[in-house]
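(Protein data)
===
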Amino acid sequence: MNNPTIRAILADDERLMREQLRSRLKEVWPELDIVAEGKNGLEAVELTREHKPDIVFLDIRMPGLTGVEAAKQIAQLPEDDEWLVPEIVFITAYDQYAVEAFEQGVADYVLKPAERDRLQLTVARIKKRLAQRSAPNPDFSDSAPAPLQQLLHKLSGQMNPGGKPSYLQWIQASVGQAIQMIPVEEVLFFISDEKYTRVQTAQVEALIRKPIKELVDEIDPRLFWQIHRSTLVNVDAIASVTRDFRGRQIVSVRGHPGKLEVSRSYAGLFKGM
């Protein structure tokens, strides 16, 4: 049985860098199919939406949207478990801050200019992660990635050292006919449908109109993990993670009887399950 073709997108505002990386990738990963190339972050997001690749190579500094900003949007694109969040590989000439963050394992990096030895290591790590998550019951026991959003927030701060991130402390939400101010730390989870996002605490269930894809940039990623395109859960509220009869990971929440499903894109958060 033939292995499925791995598809990739390259995005870099420097044409020569795109050509050089494409050439190097052809040397170390000849079977990789580069389906499209973009010149900026906006193009990268749209090309990802169109082609649904397995991997996106993003220059970390690009006009329009930076690579980090593009990665945040790309992470919110998949609409179901048939389309997983692509592996993100950042292209950077700024290795001092980048390497520390990337070594967490949730994303990888290529230094400009792309060197064959380092690229081979990157390719090996990507192949391993792709193989893990394509398994029927992915085993992430030998890798411990931090949440992708947590890494992206950290990189944003390092790229803008003068701007300290400001996260939401309170949620203004509708409870019946009243508007209530809810401390974010009291929220057990946020879960969205087509029109509203449910804000669940141990005492109340409230509604807001802000979707998860916007909330994820406003909530401290150290306190809340995204476990599904429609769900953010308070890390301190996670009681346990089990598997259902389909092999899907299910989160039990302290102080609430409901169960939250973990989509395949976020299965690596709970390594060894």
Remarks:
- The helical segments are 15-28, 41-51, 67-75, 95-102, 116-134, 148-159, 212-215.
- The first strand starts at residue 7 and ends at 11.
- The longest helix spans residues 116-134.
